[in-house]
Amino acid sequence: MGKYDQVPRPYLFEVPQDKQTHYEAGDMLTFDLRLFGKAIDYAPLFVTTFKELGREGIGKGRKPYRLIHVENRDEYNGKQRRVYMEHESGIVHQPIVITGKEIIERARTAEASGTGKIMIFFETPLRLKWKGKYTDDIQFHVLFRTLLRRMTGLLQFHHDVAPEWPIRELVERAETVRLVAKKVKWLDYDRYSARQDVKMKMGGVVGWAVYEGELAEFLPWLKAAERVHVGKNTAFDLGRIRVGGM
To answer: Are 222 and 151 in contact (CB under 8 A)?
Structure first.
């Protein structure tokens, strides 16, 4: 395990941002599921699990549901293809896989247009720890250290890769990137635990920040973070970020 107190989960959920938490009978809930590394091979089992979980029920009172439709979405070209349809047998297609190489190539295209300043949107609560405490001071090097740790863990545990990055040098360069503007607030996120039958608070930072400096080498990391999220409790859709140009 090394410095990791737990294995990072090779999946995460992305849920609608309408903040709806109560659904009546007949309502539709749509969400995204992202799989990483070896978990991609188990995509059919995830579909089967969601079907079985619907029979058992979810949420307070264990309300049942039906899994109606599962599809792949290619985020680069917008194409979609069906994976599963209720009342049809089997899994039709395997998942569309986005590779690190594709992310890097697209980040390099953005580099060509200049990346001296970027804006990062924190779309769901970002839980950053710095010196043992959660912080709302979103300095770039703190964000990058957290992302570096997450990417290393995903590669180590789920891709069987031991990355040999020049960590000290990367962090030193990240420390030169300046936070020049921000509009953030701390937002408490309530999560209901069916196992413990309690609501749990998981607060974090939402809003946006503008960073300035030598950012080109960090852009692939940030574009990867759009897909793997960053910070604590990412499996529950926390730490979702979006990178914008300036």
So the answer is: no
